[in-house]
Every structure is written in structure tokens, then in C-alpha cells.
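Entry 14: structure prediction run for Protein-arginine kinase. Input pasted below.
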Amino acid sequence: MSLERFLNQAVSSWMNEEGPDSDIVLSSRIRLARNFEDYKFPTVFSHEEAKMIIVNMEDILSKTHVQKFGQMELLKIDEMQPLQKRVLVEKHLISPKLAEESPHGAVLLTENEEVSIMINEEDHIRIQCLFPGLQLSEALEAANEIDDWLESNIQFAFDEKHGYLTSCPTNVGTGLRASVMMHLPGLILTQQINRIIPAIHQLGLVVRGIYGEGSEALGNIFQISNQITLGKSEEDICRDLKGIVSQLISQERSAREALRKTSNIQLEDRVYRSLGVLTNSRIIETKEAARCLSDVRIGIDMGYIENMPKSILNELMILTQPGFLQQYAGGPLRPYERDIRRAALIRERLKMELQK
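Run finished. Output C-alpha cells:
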């Protein structure tokens, strides 16, 4: 494996797989925050301490690994170009914070990109497991296996009363952040989302955009995650989140059915207009591309468009991001140039699929 392999493979293997309720739930993610007991936390540690954390992780990796997940590759942030880091963010393999604010950071990646372990982000270690569809329990089981492997080699910062100690107080306890990425165009088109989001917040969950905190809900894609980790078990957190997500799935399906009954021809027209834009545009911006891809995806899910896999939408949502476009171009592009390349890439990819 190499950095180039992770950059050149547009869609992680887990994104091409079908999972439970994958017409609405794109992915389930579990993230565990952990810290070494004998080192200062990343908010106050020195560059030398940051380097020692990576040396420790390299030593662990050289001696042992988790058989189930195979060999992992360690990639150092300070050895990457800005575009390379941006691509890994767009693939959800590292966070924007690790890419932009952690010069002595690193990431451990499995070959199928299902597991990534960020090093020296907000905490010394952040274990991330990504599964297709609604599979929170399965992702938690995988994260716990990685956690057990690391804990057999590392003494974590832990308090009997408070649990795992973390840089941010909101992560103290289990250190668990569970999230689900959902495609919710029905709730957008029926204008129900504005009343649903405040209700979700009142239940102790948070709703963010496609790339987490501070990002937009491009293509009608939202991340739903827990806010509280202290005083709840990992299983309780996942069960509560799954319960809310299951309700959202039901509401989204009801919204889609309502659109079919009351606005069927209008929805079908919207779907095919968006497909027309994607297959014919010569210039297209990120937001317009994401909106049209969302329309085409709901068209596939609702049977308006046949013989086109949903995975192509996952692929194009990643391929058309600014970092990927510039990576394939071999260097920086001006926004106008990116819009031209984005349109050409979408046209060519859809043409290949439609000709099958």
C-alpha cells in the first residue's frame, strides 16, 4: 500500500457495498477518542512529544496487528502535500483539523479504508470505523477490537469515576462519537426538515453537514451524531442514535411516498432535468453538482431511473470535490477550471454507465 493508492482510489470499498437501509443511510461511523497516560494532551504537548506518540504507534504497528483488519499503513501528515491531505479529508479518512492544524499528525489506514486511526488530532488517538448503511453495532464491535488491540500495548489516560480522559470535556467518559450519514431529499422537498432538526437537537443529538462540524449539507446529506458521552454506555449511545435514525428513515420514506402521490410528474421531471444537467453541462459548480446528484439518487431509489447503480452517485460525490479534481489534474486549479473539469468528469462517467 502507499499514499498514492489511497489517493487514486476514489471511493473506499465500504462505499460500494450495500448495507441495511442504504437507500437512505449512506454510512455508519464509530469514533473512539483515546490518550496516552504518560504524555501531555495534544492541546498542550510539545513537538517532541507529538513525534514520540508517532514513534510509539510505529513500534506497535511493526510488532503486531489485528488479524481481522490486515496490515495497516501509517501515513504522516507532514510528508503530504496540501492537495493530498484535502483528498483524504474528502474521502472521510481524516478530519479537516488533522489536515490543517496537526503538523505532527499521522493516520493509520486499512487497505479497504474501513478503519482509520488518526494520531495527534485533538486527542492522541482517534479510532474511526466506517460501515455501509445502518450498522452502528457492527461498527462499534470493530472499533472495540481496534481499541482492545491498542490498549494491550498502551496505557490509556483513564479515571475510575469519569472514564476515558480526553482533550474536550464533551468526549470524557466512553470517548465515543457515533454518527450516521443520511440522504434526506424527501424531508427537504416536503419542507419538514426545518422542524425535525430542532427536535433532534432537543434529544441530545447534533445535525451537521457532509464533512462534519461547520460543513454544509451538500446534496441533502446530513450527519446525525451523539453529543454526550459521559454517564452512558457505548451500547446505550448507539441504541439511542439508532432509534432516532430509524424514525428519520420512516419519515423520509413517508415523505418520498407523499411526493409520489401528490407530485409524481413534478418529481420525475426534476430527476430527469438534473440527469440532463449532469450529462450535458460544460461548467458546473460543487453545489449544483451535489444537488443534481441528489436528485438522480432519489430517482434511482424511487425507480424513475433504472439500470444505474447507486454506487455511481457515491463515486461522483467524491470525485467532483475540489481536492480530487486537482489531484487528477496534477496540480492546483482555479475555481473556473475546476468547474469545467467537474462537468467533463461527470459527463464521461455517466456516459460510460448509460452505454452499458
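Notes: The beta strands are 25-34, 72-76, 106-110, 115-119, 125-132, 158-159, 163-164, 176-183, 205-208, 221-226. Will compare against the previous run tomorrow.
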